[in-house]
Design brief:
15 strands; 6-stranded mixed beta sheet; D-tyrosyl-trna(Tyr) Deacylase, Chain: A
Amino acid sequence: MRRAAILLVCACAALAVLAAGAQASPSCDRMRSLLGHGASSSGLLVVDTADGRVLCSRAANRPRSLASNTKLFTTAAALSRLGPQARIPTKLFAAGRVDESGTLHGSLYLKGGGDPTLGTPPFIEGYLGGLGTNLYLLKRQLRAAGIERVTGRLYADDTVFDRRRGVLDSGYATSSYIGPLSGLAFNAGFRGNTSLRGFAPDPAKLAAAKLARSLRRAGVGVPRRVGLKKTPRGADRVGLVRSPPLTKLVDLTNVYSNNFFAETLAKLLGARFGKAGTTREGTRVIRRFARFNGSGAGTVDGSGLTRGNRATPRQVVDLLLAMRDDPAGEEFVQDLPLTGVEGTVEDRTEGSPAYRRCRVKTGTISGVSALSGYCFNRSGRTIAFSILMNGVYDVYRARLSQDRIAAKIASY
């Protein structure tokens, strides 16, 4: 026992010496000095994924605001718990008796499942790049079920989530950065099909109204007036549409740092694996997932809009390392934007060793800038890293410093 303990101490000492040697390199010294450009309080951790060797660190165990690096924790939990190919359903139910003429003596219920891409074809094509769930596909299914007329109403059922429209940052109300969240989302919360000006006061009722109008145009007699009501037990399903695969939703979330998608995924995690479809339950599931994977984070929302989302660079890197071994790990990595090519890093790192060689997540709120992810070096090494900058007084300089650090990482 004593010999094993001595060997363990020696091994730890050897690793400490190796880490210290790596961190004493000119590259590490330069990365540390870059942390002070544009920000007053920053942390860094750079790790070789092959053996866990620390290549560089500075204040790696000090928690800092994450901004949109919070989405790393949200999307990792969603991919791992739900599965990359999972699809989110939106269902249409009929409650009542259908007679020989095709008249439903009862009502229809449009039941949301938390799909953030549900909408109209013009919105899906114009603002989601063609990736979405066409609400109007339900009308053909309803007619195939033999229903030609409805004596009751078409009700919207959004009860899979609570009805808080935002997160803590906005007092849980709709804000200019996100909104309005709903268990029966429609056109990402916007009022129109081809304009992003103005949010709908109630996305679920808007979805029901749009479907009712579409049904009437298709010859199905449905009253104009819609309402909100939970689907009754025993109702028959007469229609179903499903979201694109979850990995596609995560790709949109991370590549474009989509707050609406991130918060919807958080509530979905709460609905599926927690006690309710709320931000509070969703972030509890996310924190539990991080701890299970040897990481951790103080998440209070799914997107990073709230300043209280905090983690250390070490916790971020620990999550990145854990996801390399997760069954959904390949999708997680590929769903991060590629430097110099797409999304929030489309115009960054050009002309540097990091150009097209890193998949990363950005993060920006007032006073906070972050960049974390993976770099794939020409030598075949994969490096995981996290740069968390707080006290940012010059965002341009902070991002330039992050890009220069990424270039150093990509050169290892």
